[in-house]
Every structure is written in structure tokens, then in C-alpha cells.
Amino acid sequence: MGVDGRLRAVVGLAQAMAAACAPRDSVRAAARGARVALDGSFAAISAWERERGRLRVLVNEGERRTGEEEFPEDESYPVHDFPEITEFLHERWAGGGGPHAWVESAVGNRPGRRGEALRRRGRATCVVAPIVLSGRAWGELYVARDEGLPDFDEDDAEFATVLAAVVAAGLAQNERLAEARRLAFTDPLTGLANRRAVDMRLDEALEEHRRTGVVVSLVVCDLNGLKKVNDTLGHAMGDRLLERFGSVLSLCGAMLPGALVARLGGDEFCLLGVGPTADEVVRVTEELCTRAAELELGEGVACGVASTGDPIGLVKSSRRLFRLADAAQYKAKAARSAKPVVAGRDTAVVRLADAAAQEAPGERRRFRGRG
Fold first, then answer.
1. Rounded CA gap, 144 and 165, in Å?
2. pLDDT in tens, 153-165
3. Which terminal residue of the chain, N or C, has fewer Cβ atoms less than 10 Å from its own Cβ?
4. C-alpha angle 364-369-370 in degrees, rounded to nearest 5
5. Element (H, E) at 262
6. Which residue in 202, 163, 313, 300 sits closest to 244, CA to CA?
7. Among the listed residues 29, 130, 34, the one whose alpha carbon sits nearest the alpha carbon of residue 70
8. CB–CB of 333/302 below 8 Å?
């Protein structure tokens, strides 16, 4: 491949990573682009997990051998089996050079197990390029050629260094986008999901309910006593109460597989369950009320439950489920109930929610202050 061909390969690699819709697609596009650019038979991208002292393979692309899955669940190698990692990513780099790729051969004598791995898998040569993000070694790009093909040389190593830099730029962009998405759907104080995340997941869940009949349950929680804590102890202690309750909600939500726990805003939280029965959701909500009452701050929590597993009528939209859960929560708060109020099991709640819908059609009705 000439200079023009290599330039096109670099551009193609960058474009493929940019077009990827998910992190898995991005690393696969990176491995494939690098393999094609270097005329390789096989390529892999691995991440260096320092805390575990290992290289974890994220993707295997190209002509895979037995045991090489495209996206392995747990294919990893101890770093001490590959001492060149520390040599090239630390000693030579720290000595004033830049991160630079190198070539290994099945007949070479470099310390480590690269040559052994090449021979075992019927490959003749490989080029290994460090991937560096934000000034730190992140992992490596590995491209190999099968026996019978020309060996990689120093020119290939130079080109692999360039490819690894392009891959690093693509991974960095993906990480920034992932962080932006996380922030867009996360409450910054508690780390729970936010209202936007709940709305999206609830719409999806109700669509699944219409298709398959899966039970969808919504718990709306109003934290009691937050204003009193803010007024008497300060907002820092109020934030502490919100964080502590968020942790309790997260703990209880984990009792329901796949549940989403969120802070809707202010002192209002929710739990969204998809799949578990209404009875299971009510049981977990009772546990939540008990644990919230034991917090060192605040005055417990008022919880309302609305579930398609209870006799609440047809749920055509997320707004109705929210109105029902709101109405149940309003009744629990007004009665200072230590247990959740459940729409459908308390028929007055359904009447209250549907009456509110007539007053303000198309909106989620808030019940605070209603007599």
C-alpha cells in the first residue's frame, strides 16, 4: 500500500470510528481499520487495567483462531507475561521519546510471550502500538500477519504508531460523548437517574407493556422534612439527606432486577420497575419506607405506587401512570402514612387521579396543597 493508500486508510479508520453508534462498534471499527491499513490478517485492541495488572482484550477482528471471540467476555493476560509493556510505555517514553510501535516475530528472541503466542496461532509476525489517552497509557493496538505473508518492518511500525494515535483520538471522543450522555441523564447531587432518563425509560416500558403485557410499576417518593433540615441545619445538611435517601433508594431498587431509580427534582424521587409483579414492588417500597424512617435526618418518606399489575384501568400514556402514582403519594403524605399507598388497591386514588386529568388534560398533575 502506497502513501496515498495509507492516507485513505487513516481517513477511513477515523470516519468509521466517528460513525460508530456504540463503544463496542467503535473499537471494532478501530481494529478493522488498522488491520486493513496494515494489510494484516488479524487485529485486536486491548485495555490496560492497572488495578488488576492485566491487558484485557476488547475485540478480536479478522481471521480468528479457536478460542478467539470477537468480543470476549474475559480474555486477559497478566502484564508480567509481557514485560515490553512497561518497557515501552514507561521507560523509553519517560526517557524523552514518544510512544512508539514495535514489531515482534514468531522467530524472535525478545523476552515475553509474544513469539510463543504467534507460533501457537499460526501467525508469523505482529506489530504492537501503544494507545495513549490524556497523556497516559490506555492500552494497545495489535495487528498480526499469518505465516506465508511478508513480515512487518520498521516502516510498518511507524505507520502503526500513526494509526494508534488516530484510534486514541476516536476513543477519547467516544469517552467525551459517553460522559456527556451520562451527565444528560444523571442527577448531579445523588448520582441517580434524572427525570429525562425516567421519561425515556417509562415510554419504552409502556410500549413493551402494550406488546407483551409486561408489568410496569412506578413508585413516586416525597422526602419528608427536607425544608425543615434546610431551614434549621443548613442546605449542606439538606444535601446530605438527599444523598443518604438516594443511597437507600438505590439499595432497595437493587432488589428489583432492572429497576431504574431516579431523583425527579427537589425532594421528589421515583423508582421504575419493569417485569417484577406489583406485589414485589409494593414489598420493596414498604422496605424503602422502613429504611427511610431510620435515617438520622428527615422525617421518612411518603410513597405512592401505581402498577399495571393492579386494577387501575387502561394505561395509554406515561402521564396517567405518573398521575396515579402522584395521587397515591399525595394520599400517603396527607395521612402521614408509614407505608405506601397503592393505586387500584385504594380506589379513591384512581378517582382522584382521573378527576385531576379532567381538570388539566395532557399534564402530569401535582397534588400538593389540594384539600
1. 18
2. 999 999 999 999 9
3. C
4. 75
5. strand 260-265
6. 300
7. 29
8. yes
pLDDT of 23 above 60: yes
pLDDT digits (tens, 9 = 90+) for 61-117: 999 999 899 999 889 887 666 656 555 555 444 444 556 888 988 886 555 578 888
Q: For the segment 103-145, what is each residue's pLDDT rounded down to a tens digit?
A: 988 886 555 578 888 888 999 999 999 888 877 778 899 999 9
What was the pLDDT predicted at 91?
44
User: What is the distance between the alpha carbons of residues 69 and 214, in angstroms, rounded to a whole number?
Assistant: 34
Burial label for 337, CB within 10 Å (0-12, 13-18, 19+), is: middle
Residue 364 DSSP code: P
- Kindly give the pairing relationship between strand 42-49 and strand 136-146: antiparallel
Closest by CA position to 321, among listed 332, 307, 311: 307
* β-strands 102-105, 76-78 pairing: unpaired
Residue 315 dihedral angles phi and psi, to the nearest 5°: -110, 100
Q: Which tens digit of pLDDT belongs to each residue from 43-61?
A: 999 988 876 778 899 999 9
Number of Cβ within 10 Å of residue 247's Cβ equals 15
Q: Which residues pair with 265 in a beta bridge?
A: 268
**Which among 133, 243, 139, 249 has a CA at the least distance from the CA of 190?**
243
